[in-house]
């Protein structure tokens, strides 16, 4: 796992447009699982377009700090969606 926020952003920049699954801490022992496509990375946050059949809203954004503190776990799928790369 990358050690700095800049390393996390660089690794996500390499995966723009790829499908991913997110596991986020929802508070009070809840885990939220979502899937979608990594659309954009900004200076402090990244944006994921969610699958519309599974979610009530179109997109979600998280900060790179969420990944660093392990509040969000990302699994990036390759083109065949058989092999997964865990970040």
TrEMBL record:
GO terms for biological process: regulation of DNA-templated transcription. It comes from Paenisporosarcina cavernae. This is ABC transporter permease. Coiled coil: none annotated. InterPro entries: Protein_Veg. It comes from the Bacteria.
